[in-house]
Write a structure and sequence with these properties.
Length: 244
């Protein structure tokens, strides 16, 4: 198994060197963070022009770009890789090797979790909008966001028969991920916000909002870890069957 995983890793390194699009996707979270450098200037401009204070919404803006954004980008990359491997019959070829059928999708999901977790932490640090104490508390939040990435990627890959269909699913899912899970920000004082917990992105976003406000964020971290990990395990089984 170790030699199989090493072979997967070497193949991925060669693919990344050849495919500039993958490099751009990996840099995406950091580009999001750089874009947030303009938030203080935008806040000042809005306050002067319309007498509206954007400061209370900084945690919402940061969560959209640096907590939910990286899982969406890297999840999409995971889906495209799986669908590309299906089109090239890579998964069919692996069936004649000693590796279990689920080994390859599991490897892809694990790498995506690690990359996403690191990207979220780095992008939050790069924004300059997250205090050091909050950044430290955001490490477990980043792990929940890391689990979100394969959830999104596997959901994108499961119903699609090829990359074209996968791109269509990504468009719809991307719009939903950037809108619906952020609605509870305006319902923080209402118990109805918990109804959004059925959406996997809710948990890392909600945990980050609490961390930024200095509130209790561990319940949302633990809930997100359990819920998203369970979804990853279920989706891995589904995708393993569908991509054969």
């Amino acid at each position: 198994m170790i030699s199989t995983l090493a072979a997967f890793g070497r193949n991925d390194l060669r693919t990344v060197r050849r495919d500039t699009m993958l490099v751009v996707v990996l840099l995406g979270p950091f580009l999001y963070a750089v874009a947030l450098w303009f938030v203080p200037s935008l806040t000042e401009f809005v306050a002067q022009r319309w007498a509206f204070d954007l400061t209370p919404y900084h945690s919402l803006i940061v969560s959209a770009f640096c907590v939910v954004g990286p899982p969406l980008l890297l999840g999409a990359m995971l889906a495209l890789q799986l669908l590309d491997d299906k089109d090239q019959h890579t998964l069919t070829a692996l069936r004649v090797t000693p590796a279990p059928p689920a080994a390859y999708p599991t490897y892809r999901a694990a790498v995506t979790i690690v990359l996403t977790t690191g990207s979220v932490i780095a992008s939050l640090a790069l924004t300059g909008l997250v205090p050091g104490r909050t950044l430290a508390m955001s490490v477990p939040v980043a792990v929940v966001a890391g689990l979100l990435a394969p959830v999104l990627g596997l959901v994108m890959a499961a119903p699609a028969r090829n990359k074209i269909e996968g791109l269509a699913v990504m468009r719809v899912l991307g719009l939903a991920v950037f809108t619906l899970p952020l609605i509870p920000f305006f319902l923080l004082d209402s118990p109805w916000q918990l109804a959004f917990g059925i959406l996997p992105p809710y948990w890392p976003a909600r945990a980050f909002w609490s961390a930024m406000d200095g509130g209790t964020f561990w319940p949302y971290v633990l809930g997100g870890l359990v819920y998203n990990a369970a979804l990853v395990l279920v989706l891995l089984r589904v995708v393993t069957r569908r991509l054969r």
